[in-house]
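User: Please predict the structure of the protein below. I'd like the answer in structure-token form so I can feed it into my own downstream comparison script.

Assistant: Understood. Taking the following sequence of 188 residues as input:
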Amino acid sequence: MRATSLVVLCVVVTMTGGPACGQADDPAPLVEVEHLAGPLFLMTCDGRAGTVASIGEDGVLLVDTGFTRTAEDQLAAIRKLTNRDIRYIINTHADGDHVGGNALLGQRAAILAHPRVRERMGHYFSLPPTSLEGLPAVDVDSETTLHFNGEEIRLIPDPGGHTDADLVVHFAGSGVAAVGDLVVTDQF
């Protein structure tokens, strides 16, 4: 068996803290981009919610879409990297900071998620409501493999982790796993 390194991408969402992005004392852009490995880029939306973009010859695949309010800035950041279409969006779960940009960013994309994401979008616990536009069209309720931008991408359902609709997205070639909020480092 070959030993490989695996980077687990943990999206850390802090619900309290400093001033909101865009206030006078916070000059940070709404979306910051950082290269991870291979075709993968981390896009940090509003300083808190992270999405992953696979960008290459096949187009763009996004893992999560961040907040509704950052979707236009995220699209602008993607356009700085490529003019190719967003072909796939994979939602790791239904929280608004993971599906908020689905409506704008998913206009021409296939949106994949655990079946319960469709049920949860728009009314999940006490979180702000999310638009019902951009609902996932493809259910992933068992382990599924995609081949995109030269690598194997494994979608692994993990209901009962953070929510009853979690998916882990493992980019095998890049050694990166996007785990949504399965690991949150600033709270119990």
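That's the full token string. Residues 1-7, 10-24 have pLDDT under 50 and may be disordered.
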